[in-house]
Amino acid sequence: MTGAPASATGGSGATPVRGGKLGTAAVNQASLWNIANLLTMARLVLVPGFVMLLLHNGGYDPAWRSFAWAAFAIAMITDLFDGHLARTYNLVTDFGKIADPIADKAIMGAALICLSYLGDLPWWVTGVILFRELGITVLRFWVIRHGVIPASRGGKMKTLSQGIAVGMYVLALTGPLATLRFWVMAVAVVLTVVTGLDYVRQAIVLRRQGLAAERSAAAQEAAEAAAEAPGSSESADRVSGTPDRVSGASGARGAAEAER
Q: Which residues have CB under 8 Å from 259's CB, separation 6+?
């Protein structure tokens, strides 16, 4: 016997196994700090900075609104890259799944609310867009156990048109450009409503299919359980044997009548 006992050194005496729970936790903790999640965190940090820049000096200073537009543009660009990087390089994490859509809606919601507060954008436009975004998020959770509603091409066009329109409203534009941004926002609102209705349709279809599959699986399990239940084979034998006895009794009566 050499050396101190394990209890004296504060350990169990066993050598830590590489790849055990401790190693897995360390790997998961390290994987949180990947480039995709860092971009998402940067977008979240940009939200309060963007609001302060946009509302600085009463919210009507063209220079400060240009700075706010730069912050908004950076947030939109990081939104394009973080998801692509996560999928391409297998950097998808639970944090990213939750934080990415929150960051998207936070920067867009902050911009819309500030623009309506400043009187640049009607409140009903802000209400329609925010209601759609929050409603689709709730809808996704409503059907998540039946499947995932994929992002459609129309949804991507909606996101792009919203980003361009809001960015144009953040800038202090005048003249033809101010008229152009009105029509770009009109297109964004139409796409917002149309794609929202399409997501509702997909969610209803997906839920119906999921419930039908669950009922079919439950019926199949019940049938298998009934077939495997004790005594089910004996009762089946008794049922199948009944016609033979009945036919045998009828034959016996017929033979007796023939003998008479």
A: none
Integer Cα distance of 167 and 70 in angstroms: 9
Closest of 125, 126, 131 to residue 110, by C-alpha: 126
Rg (C-alpha) for the chain, rounded Å, is 33
Q: Which residues are CB-contacts of 194 (< 8 A; sequence separation ≥ 6)?
A: 154
Q: What would the pLDDT profile of 70-117 be if each residue is shown by its tens digit?
A: 999 999 888 888 777 777 778 777 777 778 888 888 999 999 999 999
Q: pLDDT digit string (tens) for 38-73?
A: 888 989 999 999 999 999 989 999 999 999 999 999
Q: d(Cα 81, Cα 253) in Å, to the nearest integer?
A: 89
Pairs from 254-260 (Cβ < 8 Å, separation ≥ 24)? none
In the numeric block, the tokens 């897995």 are attached to 24
Cβ neighbours of residue 236 closer than 8 Å, sequence gap 6 or more: none
**pLDDT at site 188:** 96
Tell how many helices (H) and how many strands (E) occur in the chain. Answer: 9, 0
Is the pLDDT assigned to residue 238 strictly greater than 80?
no
Cα–Cα separations (whole angstroms), residue 180 to 28, 59, 183: 48, 21, 5
Residue type (1 letter), 252 = A
Give the Å distances, CA to CA, from 104 to 55, 72, 84, 116, 231: 20, 11, 14, 19, 61
Q: Work out the angle at residue 131's Cα, subtended by the Cα atoms of residues 123 and 154, and round it to the nearest 5 degrees.
A: 110
pTM: 0.70
Q: How confident is the model at residue 121 (pLDDT cuts 50, 70, 90)?
A: very high
CA 221, distance to chain mean position in Å, is 30
